[in-house]
UniProtKB/TrEMBL annotation:
Residues 199-457 form the Sulfatase-modifying factor enzyme-like domain. Its cofactor is Fe(2+). It catalyses: gamma-L-glutamyl-L-cysteine + hercynine + O2 = gamma-L-glutamyl-hercynylcysteine S-oxide + H2O. Residues 40-173 form the DinB-like domain. Transmembrane segments: none annotated. This is Hercynine oxygenase. Belongs to the EgtB family. Gamma-L-glutamyl-L-cysteine binds at R109, K110, D111, R112, D442, R446. It is an enzyme of class 1 (oxidoreductase). It comes from Sphaerisporangium album. The lineage of its organism: Bacteria, Bacillati, Actinomycetota, Actinomycetes, Streptosporangiales. It comes from the Bacteria.
Length: 464
């Protein structure tokens, strides 16, 4: 029995372990591998929790936008098999006949319920078997592998790949559970109170900053290479736009005024008959929403979520602003002008703790604005990490000098003028998959993701 299998998963929930992971690699390969195993275990427990529901709900498709949950479950194991067992360790396929079923590029989500999917029990057995062999491979890695030149082994990259992949699917599963409309499937929790008042916008002076991933060996290809960018001065909202502020846009007739919308956004709004964020409705003077199967009044001080890029863009125009570019967003989030260096997070390089950000499904909602003063960036912007993914004005494009790794389908095939970049992670994002340089992307009409936004505006000449 692998010793790594006995690692207490609880260790991985201590965020300081995440911070220590990469420094541990340099001194103690055994401790490094123990931590990876603990993190893999923690991610798996989360996947199993979200799929610990009736088989009927697992195999059903709750929305054409999403896979049946049982597909996600077996897919994370299949991805792990492909990358760790076959690509890294050179093993033969355990079940070659299922590979195309779980290839995300072979079948669009809408078609997945019609595939001969593994059933819930079979899927759990399959992924547990793969995981056992993955831990054996991990245990067999030596310090020379971790420090060596092979890009899949160096710094344990391939384990970071499959771990972050599982975390991202866990967030996708939560979006599916929200779309299911069923109560009682997703736990809620407590969050710190908000802080009313304070400046609405923060100022970011003109100048160069360093964009993209620094030393983090688990950063994705699309975060590289790090590069300098020179930006004019701008203002950016201190907090994400609240549901209350968004409701004012709705009540001001924002959805009936083409002048606030891009031509495509207006067409989308009209075709879809959209009149408010997804899951919202109005009764009398009160906005209500459905959140994981329960109806509740929309909290005015919470960041708005479940809005498309089109809606975010229209709101920003109505407010006399625009969405930040992703470079502006990243500078406001992670740049430390005094030190002249980029931080991993707004507050520094320490892994996210409970006072910094609302990440990792502490509760099943964003925290009220002002809840995380300790998570502020050097420029005073708050809640940039966690709560809601933030739409930016940027298309998902490669950084200068981009090189696809370890496979084209991770990022490269999505580059172009179809997807918009989202930054920062949501309440559902695992801390391991959230950082200042992390780039997410989606189509501008998507609303099932836990996405909101904040606005920015160029600084007038006399301020710049
Ligand atoms: Fe995937």
């Amino acid at each position: 029995m692998s010793t790594l299998r006995n690692t207490k998963a609880a260790e991985a929930t201590d965020a300081s372990h995440t911070a220590a992971l990469h420094t541990a690699a340099l001194d103690d390969a055994a401790a490094f591998k123990e931590r990876i195993a603990a993190e893999l275990d923690e991610g798996r427990r989360r996947s199993l929790t979200y799929t610990d529901i009736d088989d009927d709900l697992l195999v059903r498709q709750h929305s054409a936008l999403m896979s049946p949950l049982v597909w996600d479950l077996a897919h994370v194991g299949n991805y792990e098999e492909l990358w760790v067992l076959r690509e890294l360790a050179g093993a033969d396929p355990t079940r070659p006949e299922i590979d195309t079923i779980y290839d995300a590029f072979a079948h669009p989500r809408k078609d997945r319920p019609n595939l001969p999917l593994l059933g819930p029990a079979e899927a759990r057995t399959y992924i547990a078997g793969v995981r056992g062999r993955v831990l054996d491979v991990l245990e067999g890695l030596g310090e020379a592998d971790l420090r060596g030149a092979d890009p899949l082994r160096a710094g344990g990259f391939v384990f970071g790949l499959v771990l972050q992949h599982e975390h991202q699917h866990d967030e996708t599963m939560l979006a599916t559970l929200q779309l299911s409309g069923r109560p009682g499937l997703v736990r809620d929790g407590d969050l710190p109170p908000g802080r009313p008042g304070g400046a609405e916008e923060v100022f970011v002076p003109a100048g160069r900053f360093r964009a993209g991933a620094g030393a983090d060996p688990w950063a994705y290809d699309n975060e590289r290479p790090a590069h300098d960018a020179d930006l004019p001065a701008f203002w950016i909202d201190r907090h994400p736009v609240t549901a209350g502020a968004y409701a004012a846009f709705v009540e001001d007739g924002g959805y009936a005024e083409p002048r606030w919308w891009s031509p495509r956004g207006w067409r989308w709004r009209a075709e879809q008959g959209v009149t408010a964020p997804l899951f919202w409705w109005r009764e009398g003077h009160t906005w209500w929403r459905t959140r994981f199967g329960r109806a509740e009044p929309v909290p005015a001080d919470e960041p708005v979520q479940h809005v498309s890029w089109y809606e975010a863009d229209a709101y920003a125009r109505w407010a006399g602003k625009r969405l930040p570019t992703e470079a502006e967003w990243e500078k406001a989030c992670g740049w430390d002008p005094a030190a002249g260096r980029a931080r991993a997070y707004p507050w520094g390089d320490a892994a996210p703790g409970p006072a910094h950000a609302n990440l990792g499904h502490r509760a099943s909602r964003p925290a009220p604005v002002g809840a995380f003063p300790a998570g502020a960036s050097c420029y005073g912007a708050e809640q940039m990490i966690g709560d809601v993914w933030e739409w930016t004005g940027s298309w998902f494009l490669p950084y200068p000098g981009f090189r696809g790794f370890p496979y084209r389908e991770y990022s490269e095939v999505f580059f172009g003028r179809a997807h918009r970049v989202l930054r920062g992670g949501s309440w559902a994002t695992h801390p391991r998959a959230a950082r200042a340089s992390f780039r997410n992307w989606d189509l501008p009409n998507r609303r099932q993701i836990f996405a909101g936004f904040r606005c920015a505006r160029p600084a007038p000449k006399e301020e710049a």
